[in-house]
Each structure stands twice: as C-alpha cells, then as structure tokens.
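Work package 3, deliverable 3.1, input record:
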Amino acid sequence: MIVKKFVLSAFQQNTRVVACPDTGVAICIDPGAASDEIVEFIRSGGLTLQAVTLTHGHLDHVGGTSHLRDAFPDAEIIIHTDDEDLYHALPQQPLFMGIQPHQLASLGLKYDAPPAPTRNWEHGETYAVGSLRFEIRHCPGHTRGHVVFAEMNEKKVFVGDCLFEGSIGRTDLPGGSYEQLINSIEQNILSLDDDFVVFSGHGPETTVGRERLTNPFLTGAYAPGGGRFI
Ligand SMILES: [Fe+2]
C-alpha cells in the first residue's frame, strides 16, 4: 500500500493519498484543503484517482473536495448518509465553531458549496482500491456519520477523528456523543489486532495495541463527566 500524507489547513489535518502499488488505483482520504501538491503527486505518480473517500463531514476533512474533483472529474465522492447534511453545510461550518465571518478568508476557511456525493458508505461493505480491500465500519460519536476504513490484509486502519495517539475525537460539536464514540471505538477499532497501524486525522500514527494499553480514554484512567483523572 502506498500512503502519502499531506498536513493541511489551519487545523493541521492529515490528508492522505492511498494507492494500490500493483494497479496505480488511488483514493484520497479526507482532502482537508485545496492543494496543488496533492494533484501533482497523483499526476506525476501516474495514479488514477478513483474516489475522494470521506471519513466524516467536518470542514477540515472535506474542504479540498471541490479542488480535487475539478482536477479529476471522474473521481467518486463517498460519504456516509448521516454526515451528508454536515458536508453540504461546509460554507457555514466555521460559523458553527465560533469563527467570525471576517476571519474566514485569513484562516483559509471560506468555502463554496461542495460537489454532491456520488454515493454513500454502507457499514460492513468491502471497498476495493485496485487489489486493496477496505472494510467500511460506521463509527458514530465524533459525528453521526463517521466511518473508518480497515485494510485487513495489510493491517492498516484509517480512523479520521475517532481516535488519536493518546486521545479521542471531540464530542461537543453537533451530532457528537461521548458514549457513542467510546462504544464505536471498542466495537470497530479495538476489535482489530494489536499490530494494526492506526492512521488518524490529526497527529502521528499509532497502533491498536498501543492505544489499547496506554490511551487514558480507553484504559479506564479517565472518567467522563467530572473532567478529572482517577
Ligand atoms: Fe472532525
């Protein structure tokens, strides 16, 4: 599996181009901002962009969708149906987060309406990228329609904003639920083997085993509600 990371936007989000080395078929997981560097990477590598594959609809994960679609008009755009409203609300999302209208341009967060998705993820489906096979797992909690992509042969999982090294995704934005997120992580990520490499939407890579052992939100060290360690 070819994995190329681009750290984009004011949110330092990890956009990744993932490709099958046998066929050159590629996906872009969560294009966080318009980036000519990504377009150039795909073109110069002779890759075929099959789809923009979205883990969820937050602006720092979908902000570059229009730009990529303009460059590669045949690419699909795939998102879970429960995050479509969020996706279509891209131009308004910065305002939900408390960013003032006059700050949008300077922060690079001024968006037009994004292109329509071409289809939706189904929990449990197998998604082929050349000879790679991703299992799609619905993981609500950070957003209602968040999904993760697990490649079971290569033991790699792309988890968006569900799980980070030593932390978990925020649950205070619309559609968020702490209980749902912990449940999603336990059922759909911790159920993977310890040696799965975890690719998060922000920060460094980690492994399932490392997070199972040391992540305070998953070991029981952190008690929700009181906001303190016990
Ligand atoms: Fe997010």
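Residues 56, 58, 61, 142, 161 surround fe (ii) ion (CB under 6 Å).
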